[in-house]
Fold this sequence. Notes:
Chain A is about 25% helix and about 25% strand. By secondary structure, chain A is α+β, with helices and mostly antiparallel strands. In chain A, α5 (about 215-230) packs across α6 (about 255-265) and α13 crosses α16. Chain A is globular, with a radius of gyration of 27 Å. Chain B is of the alpha+beta class. Chain B has helices spanning about 10-25, 45-50, 65, 85-90, 90-95, 100-105, 110-115, 120-125, 130-135, 175-180, 280-290, 295-305, 315-335; strands at about 5-10, 35, 55-60, 70-75, 75-80, 185-190, 195-200, 220-230, 235-240, 250-260, 265-270, 280. In chain B, the strands form 3 sheets. Chain B has a 5-stranded antiparallel sheet with strand order 4-5-8-6-7. A 4-stranded antiparallel sheet of chain B has the order 9-10-11-12, with helices on both faces. A 3-stranded parallel sheet of chain B has the order 1-3-2, covered by helices on one side. The interface of A and B includes residues 47, 637, 684 and 692 of A. The complex binds flavin-adenine dinucleotide (FAD) and iron/sulfur cluster. Flavin-adenine dinucleotide (FAD) binds near residues 43, 174, 175 and 248 of chain B.
Amino acid sequence: MSIAAPEPKANMGQPVPRYDAVAKVTGMAKYAADMPLANPAYAYLVTSAIAKGRIDSFELTEARNIRGVIDIVTHENAEKLKDVKLFSEGGYMSTTVQPLKSADVAHDGQIIAVVLADTFEAGREAAHRVKVNYRPATPSTTFDSPGTTSGPAKGQASRFKEDPKVGDFAKAFDEAEVKITASYETPTQHHNPMELFATSCVWTGDNLTIYEPSQYVYGLKNGVAAQLGIDADKVRVINYYVGGAFGSKGSTTPRTAIMASLARRLNRPVKLVPTRDQGFTIATYRAETRHQIQIGANRDGKLVALRHEGAEVSSRPDAYVVGGTKTTTRLYACPNVDSLVSIVHADRNTPGFMRSPPEVPYLFALESAMDELAVKLNMDPIELRRVNDTMKEPIGGKPYTSRSLMACFDEGARAFGWSQRSAAPKSMTDGDWLVGYGCATTCYPTQMAPAAARVRLQRDGRVRVEIAGHEIGNGAYTVIGQAAAEKLGVPFENVSVHIGDSDLPPAPVAGGSNSTASTCSAVMMVCDQIRQRLFRALMPNESVIDKAKETVGMGQTPVAESANSGRPLDREKAFDALGVSVVEEYGEWKPEDAPKDSFRAMQQGQVRIVGGSAMSDKIAYAFGAEFVEVRIDKWTHEIRIPRLVGAFAAGHIMNPRTARSQLMGGLIWGMSSALLEATELDPRYGRYVNDNLADYLLPVNADVQDVEVIMLSEQDDHINPAGVKGLGELANVGTNAAVCNAIFHATGQRIRKLPVRLENLEV
Amino acid sequence: MRSFTYQRVTDPSAAIQALAMAVANNNPPTEATAQPLAGGTTLIDLMKLDVMRPRTVVDINPLASTWSAINLDGGNLRLGALARMSDVAANPEIQRNYPVIADSLRLAASPQLRNMATLGGNVLQRTRCTYFRDISYANCNKRDPGSGCAALDGFNRMHAVLGTSEQCIATYPGDFAQALIALDATVEITGKSGVRNIPFAQLHKPPDDSPQIETTLAPGELISAFTVSGRWPRSVYLKARDRQSYEFALSSAAVALDVQDGVISDARVALGGLATVPWRAREAEALIKGQKFDEALAQRVADAALAGAQGRRHNAFKIALGKRVVARALHQAATMEI
Ligand SMILES: Cc1cc2nc3c(=O)[nH]c(=O)nc-3n(C[C@H](O)[C@H](O)[C@H](O)COP(=O)(O)OP(=O)(O)OC[C@H]3O[C@@H](n4cnc5c(N)ncnc54)[C@H](O)[C@@H]3O)c2cc1C
Ligand code: SF4
């Protein structure tokens, strides 16, 4: 055991090394753009230099004359692809703006032409020589820009069902002994996964193979098929590894069907590797948000009134919304709650999922406001959370399936040395540094979705698991392999895991932190099916009717009981009794509460995610407490974070090594989202300015010093068979607030707008 | 990136000859049709972005056998133009006698870049102004003279507050140049008609009415070395930036002092991250000479150094920041143990 491979506590699996570790560190892992293609044509995108207006004309002669250029495709000669709905409106797409359909430009960096060439270099050179004559219009860029339209999310975004409220907020707030009213802002951010948004398309007859980093191969396969108007069974998506995604590769972006269409037209594989700056506009992003929080409390800290109003930017045609009020209104006990989320439509690309889409901005507001309240009450911020801790969410009165928030605070506080904190702002210094300690709550909904798997067990104990899951750095290969190894009682090394291919049984989108819970639950169920067949061979007296019950996973016959109990199995004896060498099972698993059409939808690349606050009789979340030490240079006002401590409880931890890595990465990103990451818009043009990795600031190694991850033991039998609460998106939530709370402690200055730059500090 | 001819030269005269075709036209060196290639970390980047479009790239790396030496003879320093940033930063003699040079290099870019990049290329690195580096922006006088300046009223947080003009406010981004200008370094230039030496302070040109002309180099000329006379053990380079490493300065200061019996006999102050060119604060220096150091003096010097600064929408903070950085760097230099 080591720091990287923590000793498992109760209800934790073994910290086995990553299944794909050697492949990755030796460079053998093949990412989408690494897949060998026979004589590909290279596509290079031309994107719009205006955010709104029309294309008058293209001047292409110079570009066409570059040696190696095959063709240049614009709206004037592109195949018109079918319109497909937004993923959140029952479709697949990241945006309903379909490029190359008309002369209209709807956002900065929209794809307006594609150069096809024999080499990447020729394509790039030609693309630089494409001249575009625009008729620009003035874009409405963001909040407060003239010409935007705004309205409540409810009614325009079908995923946003309610503005949670309970009791009488207005009256309770009015009468409250202590009140806080404050406004907060979070910036535009881009995922910037290391791996670019590459796509290769290869046709074999009328079968299409797509190599593309995707968090949802079934979604992409069906989305592209719908756009091309072909049978989804003719489309296969392969991506064995995804080099970072963070939500940006979850829905189908327009580029893929365009590439497929071009490959069909050329009758030649087409390979696209867009540039880093194109990635800022051809995929999605986290839109900027604004919040107003009002809290009324008693002198003892008990909340009596809470109101959270949020506003988010979306594109003109699409009502994408994250709507984090479903979480912030339920986090603490409070009898009178009100909320409202609205959408501002601007001349922008449609935003999309980005790691903890609702929680990052919405908990920034709430957890900052809680700290402001603690200051006003002269109360320790941890005690304020304790006073308002609850096992029942206040809106519907539903019980949390488990909640270890205060245990996380207590363990985290101990590890961090919170007791060393002197409460008064500006009271801690170290030489030229002002020192501040801050903390905040994190939480993330526990979500699951239907998934299918195929598992094969050989007499010699070798296992093959097939499921169209996604290795986005989350450790999918590893935990899926562990789930099968544990169930079938074989060593981990015996399991070969096959994921990242839409020809395998469907798994849900690797989003909403549902992957481990969903894929492992499905794999475990199918392993149980195998065990049942083997136990039946050893208990030949069980009837045929029972067999039917067992295979749908509901049987409670002696065979099923033995199989499901984890009882050791004499595998070789069972195989000999069966008289075969291989047993293979396929099964479809769905979580409790999943809608009736779940399995059909799953095959069609439509996820039916359940869990979190949307369950009928309970509510399921993972929790954590985060602690930050901030240091501010008195002279330069440079802000540095020497220490981050997070304590988390997330049900069964499949693998403490991969879990720690996720949580550590989350803490670092959380710090980054407070201090560094912001995409700057030039409002005159509605364009992103710092669209590269030199100017879009991410932490470098020197910015990341001590990061301590503590995993608490927690058991939850009410969520899914794996007992897993997703934690991929848990640790980057609340960190932004903890940083600002620490900055307040160091300086006495409350920062309510992210990111915090040194010029925002007046020390 | 446009197709180009790659030529590798093994001696200086061949390099000069290969570059001579560039002399035929009247473009400033940055626009010349033949460009020398050193580490390539500026040039190749800008070619990929289609900002620089040479037809010939002359690889001068083989000249490193003669042009990369680090010499500290007789109390003077000579640095070959092809010395790598990392080699100079790691040199113990430089660290001891010229901490301002070692630190200005050590705190720049990343280890990978420092291993590639050369001193000559470093001083000639070009601005990071995004409107300059992204050809899809129509208005940039530096890239396309007469087209306007998108940064004046655009996102200009990283832009300059000193030495600006209505035509261009792009920051000179480098760190090392601030050490050179502070130490009154000399640039050795090799050209068609032999070798000439100019003060480093005369190498760069402020934007004025022609931001496309960045230096006084003639097309086809090469920088072959830098020299510094005397030693400056009491010198510091302080760099304030958004993150702890791998980031350009929001504001930096190169300060070198000569202190005799508690009295400052010589003082050099240069500013980075704030100006359109490597920036020497001579008026500020004048206040220090003959004085004893105290914090009030540091404050006065800092105020004088930024006296002419002009802020814009997003970069006005740099004026106050610059003053604090200067004051802090003076304090560090005055109090350092040598
Ligand atoms: C991401 C990133 C971060 C960076 N951060 C910093 C930083 O924090 N601080 C900092 O100071 N710098 C920073 N840099 C800039 C870096 O230091 C320069 O790119 C580098 O020093 C240039 O040296 P080179 O040898 O690679 O030059 P090249 O790219 O080879 O050349 C640059 C220019 O100078 C010309 N040239 C080269 N050598 C000569 C010569 N001997 N005579 C005449 N002309 C010549 C070339 O033709 C070209 O036009 C950063 C760069 C990057 C990409
Ligand atoms: S500041 Fe200079 S480099 Fe930047 S846009 Fe203006 S003219 Fe161009």
